[in-house]
Design goal:
Layout: E1 13-22, H1 36-48, H2 62-67, E2 80-85, E3 94-95, H3 106-116, E4 125-131, E5 138-141, E6 146-150, E7 152-153, E8 156-157, H4 160-174, H5 221-228, E9 243-248, E10 252-253, E11 259-266, E12 273-281, E13 284-293, E14 298-305, E15 311-317, E16 320-326
Parallel strand pairs: 1-2, 1-3, 1-4, 4-6, 10-16
Antiparallel strand pairs: 5-6, 7-8, 9-11, 11-14, 12-13, 12-15, 15-16
């Protein structure tokens, strides 16, 4: 399969998605007469990036969202290359309305994938289906690496930002971000946590146009995807010593009180090991803790720093760095 022709780089992580769109019309009760541009246009805007959705973390395109992912590549760069075939690579078709609702159950979406996506793409490509109208904004079927999104819901057109957010959410499910026991993502598809605590498009409490996965210590979705779903074709040299894996601190804090900083650490080695977690404040070690980890163990530790003077400060642990603003208190 000529994936290099799609822009794939063997030194970077890639995700491939084929997106088909159902044409408007037909006798199905779920179809409404909306312009073809309302069906296909949002796919281009939300996925291929040819029609930018705007600036900033809320409105950037899905492609830019993956490009900015805090994920390491074998060539030393960061980010994930999202390759979406909406027709430019012999996939991504306009499909005739079959007169049935393909969103009703998994078997119908699976049938669309089986009939309209080439067999040779099965091991690599995820499959997306855009429908003109449905009773819900989208649904994913992770076991089949497939999902659908709706250009309008009950006849009301989906806003461009929300459309891109829905694509990201359902693609996240297709990539394996599920509310399944043992994965550590118990908050996926719930509104149990605020966006501040769980800033992810997988959070039902997130804004309608949210566009990012979480890299917080407790909900490191990007890290989970990097390790389990997106194996590069050139291996990354894996660490064998204990290391910091993430850093979380509120970006704005009140002065006059110590600031809690959460640090994730793990031991990828095969023996129990102890590591010193050093928290640097504006370049100087301000707090330190020794942590002993069993082989394969992951843990979060909380370090306190301050009280800090009002203004901007930089906190860092290992390669992770955050800038915070301290108020007057």
């Amino acid at each position: 399969m000529p994936i290099d022709e799609y822009g794939a780089d063997p030194r970077r992580k890639d995700i491939f998605v084929e997106v088909d769109s159902l044409t408007v019309g037909g006798n199905g009760p779920w179809i409404t007469q909306v312009p073809r541009s309302a069906v296909y246009g949002p796919v281009v805007a939300g996925l291929s990036g040819t029609l930018p959705l705007g600036e900033g973390p809320i409105h950037r395109s899905v492609e830019a969202m993956f490009a900015a992912a805090p994920v390491e590549n074998p060539d030393g760069s960061t980010g994930i290359d999202l390759h979406v075939d909406t027709g430019q690579f012999d996939g991504g078709e306009y499909l005739a309305d079959p007169g049935i609702d393909p969103t009703a159950n998994r078997s119908r979406v699976r049938a669309f994938r089986r009939v309209h996506m080439a067999d040779r793409r099965e091991p690599i490509f995820h499959y997306g289906l855009v429908v003109p109208n449905a009773t819900t904004v989208g649904r994913a079927f992770a076991a089949d690496s497939a999902f659908f999104v709706a250009a309008s819901v009950d006849g009301e057109r989906t806003a461009r930002g929300q459309f891109a957010s829905t694509i990201s959410h359902e693609l996240g499910h297709s990539l394996g971000l599920l509310r399944t026991r043992g994965t550590g993502f118990d908050a996926v598809d719930t509104a149990d946590l605020s966006t501040m605590a769980y800033p992810s498009v997988m959070n039902y409490d997130a804004p309608a146009a949210a566009l990012d996965f979480s890299d917080r210590c407790a909900f490191d979705e990007w890290g989970w995807l990097a390790e389990r779903s997106l194996a590069p074709r050139t291996p990354i040299e894996r660490p064998t010593e204990p290391r910091a894996t993430c850093l979380h601190v509120d970006r704005t804090v009140e002065g006059g009180a110590p600031v809690p900083v959460v640090v994730g650490v793990d031991n990828p080695g095969e023996e129990t090991a102890t590591t010193a977690v050093e928290l640097r404040l504006d370049g100087t070690v301000a707090a330190e803790r020794a942590v002993t980890l069993a082989p394969g163990e992951r843990r979060q530790v909380t370090l306190l720093v301050g009280p800090l003077s009002p203004g901007e400060h930089t906190l860092a642990v290992g390669p992770f760095e955050r800038t915070i603003h301290v108020g007057e208190g």
